[in-house]
Design brief:
The chain is of the alpha+beta class and 260 residues long. 16% of the residues lie in helices and 32% in strands. The chain has helices at residues 16-24, 47-53, 121-124, 190-204, 219-224; strands spanning 3-10, 28-34, 41-45, 63-69, 75-87, 94-101, 108-117, 128-131, 135-140, 149-152, 161-163, 174-175, 182-187.
Amino acid sequence: MEVGKLTVHLRKTISKGETRKLRAQGLVPGVCYGANLSAPLSVVVNPKELKASLDPAKGRNTVIDVTVQDGSASAARLTAMLWEYQIDALKRNVTHVDLISIDPNKAIEVEVPVELTGKAIGTVDGGQIHVERHSLPVKCRPADIPVKFTVDITELKIGDALHVSDVKMPAGVIAAIPETFTLVTCVAPKAEKEAETAVAAEGALVEGAVPAEGAAPAEGAAAAAAPGAKGAPAAGAPAAGAKGAAPAKADDKKGGKDKK
């Protein structure tokens, strides 16, 4: 088990003013809690030293040998891990750190990254890979924490999926979620679905079909009624039913006497 080393200092005073002074010096406030601690410890952490204590491959899953200085000749030592940290949204620097004390002989729950390898067969047919989980929660002793899980997606076809049960777990490591949970799927491309929708809509507009009563005329109908088009009224002639148009010739025999 690779162990990083970090020295932190107990905070003598806790106030906003003291916190601002710490950050001005390149330090950040932190809290250490967990196993073998009767109460949380308020500490001062150097973020650069914290980063140097983390294994580049394991990151937050690195086990750290923490020395807690309280200003006296003696110092407490803890086995801990980086649990959480906060970053300033604008400056992007660390503003707070949470360390959790652990028992090296007891299992803990951590998130292990999932790395996909290979090219899925389904992508050759236009399928798309959807990653449902980029990491996998597992339970194990600190010494058994994997660096990552490697999952080969080469055999995935459109409609196929890989689940937690398809991941090979090292000895002493068990998944902290059900094995039926999906990790990655190969789905039909969105463009193909949109094309099918467009074809269905086009089939509803049969060429030459008469629109329903009250429906707007098709784009081609407006062009056909343009002046100069075959069957269109002469230019300047008022449309039938328009205001000022001559009334249609009435049937002499309907509704009146025959003229003599």
